[in-house]
Sequence to fold (245 residues):
Amino acid sequence: MSENEKEEKDKPSNEELDVEEPKQEEKEVDKEAEKPKAKFTFKCTRCDKCCLARGPIPLTFWDLELWAKNGVVANFMPYLEIYHKPDGGIDLILKPLPPKKDEENKKARDPFSPTPIEELLEEKCPLYNKENKQCLVYDNRPLSCRTYPLEYDGKNYKVVDVDCPGIGEEGMTKEELAEMRDNAKLMNYELTRIRIALPVLSQLISQKVMMDLMRQNIEAMSKMSDEDRAKLDEIFKKNQEPSEE
Ligand code: SF4
Ligand code: SF4
Fold:
């Protein structure tokens, strides 16, 4: 067995990692347990594996506030998208760019249809510079990147990428562990907050866009000459006539 295969085999699975600060009673239970959980330790090795295949990154108000405060919102704008998920929920995401080959195919098909998110789940973050192996927005990186690969679901912590090479690395201080746990909890809180607000905001914005479009149409119609209006009426009438088949 190669050294790498051995390392993979010895790596604790998500269930075997102990991320929580053990409470007194849990410590006693752990003492009794036949196979105590491996202590969660983490040190990012900067392998950049996560930035290269992160897929859509969920964003929160925390991120928007940070970018507004630092005057960098425009840097993120081209990659922001409201994602209507298959389960009915809505997320604000940092959307990966489609691979070049797909982009060329798409242009040949329909230049206006965006690549579905489902096809970008393993794609590189748009703000990662592959050549220089560098995050282009490190100081303003989203909260989700600050807590990766740890998440908190409201009850428990979980490691979302057990293959992350940083897991199990020694050298994490108590303070760093506490900060990572705090960030994971904050991410859970912020994600809940934006997921409650987004459906309402998205509806309000769509209504406003519709009203603006209607207003622009009415204004354009009022400026039309009688001749143009007659032509338009004719086109409408033609479209309403039943087709002969
Ligand atoms: S978080 Fe993990 S996968 Fe991402 S760069 Fe650090 S070690 Fe690599
Ligand atoms: S924003 Fe930076 S840290 Fe986060 S995935 Fe992109 S390149 Fe990586």
